[in-house]
Amino acid sequence: MPLHSLVAAARARLRAARIPSDEADLDARLLAEHVLGWDAARYFTHADEEAPAGFADRYDALVARRAAREPVAYIVGRQEFWVLSFEVSPAVLIPRPETELLVEAALERVDARRVVDVGTGSGCIAVAIAHERRDVRVVATDSSSAALDVARRNASTHGVADRISFAREDLFDGLTGAFDLIVSNPPYVPDGDRASLQPEVRDFEPGEALFAGADGLDVIRALVAQAPGRLTPGGALLFEFGFGQADAVASLLSGAAGLTMLDLRRDLQGIPRVAIASRE
Asked: What radius of gyration do the chain's Cα atoms show?
């Protein structure tokens, strides 16, 4: 059977699993490319060929996982972020495009030399910053040893392991000294929103990296409270937050002793996503 016929059948199966049609179409192709070891260009030029021996069974197994709503990134073990390919596993959140806004804002802080990435997960933020700024030293923390193992491998893959140190810590616990820049993509989903999340998120991504109390701000409150004592004079705190939390975040930063809110950066849809504050 031609490859395109098998992929068409997979698209229909994923749509039947209530995956949106555009996502189902893309996922069916990405899984085929993963099994084949091909890029998109080769797939499109060879999709009318007969499927190689063994392809159908391997492909069907992966499509079944996706139909059960497992994220494609976990199935293939990779996710693109900041034009880099990152290893991911169920131990870490899958990097999202909106988090690139946090990296962009961090890179604008040209005077930063010592950076800490709080709750590093896959290490995507720390690695992206170190990849772009060869003069920066980053400390990446996480409370999960499994997440740190993934982050270490990503740092090694992208040639920045010598400039990132990893620590199993909760926020800043166990760290010494002050930092020019604190960055974080903390958990910020309210506990009560669990049932409304997509199955891909609710059932597969690590809950400790998603949920943060009744209003989703428990970790952010702790981050804001501790940041002034961990920043150099003029140093900056940057963190991501969720949809609908902008007013609460602005109020929190406005009332924080030792911090001045500078900006709430918006994504391409005009939604506030990243808070920027500096130590007075």
From this structure: 21
Task: State the total domains in the chain.
Answer: 2
Tens of pLDDT, residue by residue over 158-193, are 999 999 999 999 999 999 999 999 999 999 999 999
Q: Report how far residue 165's alpha carbon sits from residue 101's, in angstroms, rounded to the nearest whole number.
A: 23
Q: Domain range holding 230?
A: 79-279
User: Above pLDDT 70, what percent of the chain?
Assistant: 100
Where does a domain end: 40, 68, 96?
68
Residue 148 domain-assigned (yes or no): yes
Shared-domain flag, residues 144 and 215: yes
Token digits of residue 251: 């109020």
Q: List helix spans (H) across the chain.
A: 3-16, 21-36, 40-46, 55-67, 72-76, 100-107, 124-132, 145-157, 199-202, 218-226, 246-254
Q: Is a pLDDT exceeding 80 seen at residue 111?
A: no
* pLDDT the model gives residue 113: 87
Both 48 and 167 in one domain: the answer is no
Closest residue by Cα to residue 13 from 30, 27, 33, 34? 27
Model confidence, pTM: 0.93
Picking from 208, 203, 206, 210, the residue whose alpha carbon sits closest to that of residue 66 is: 203
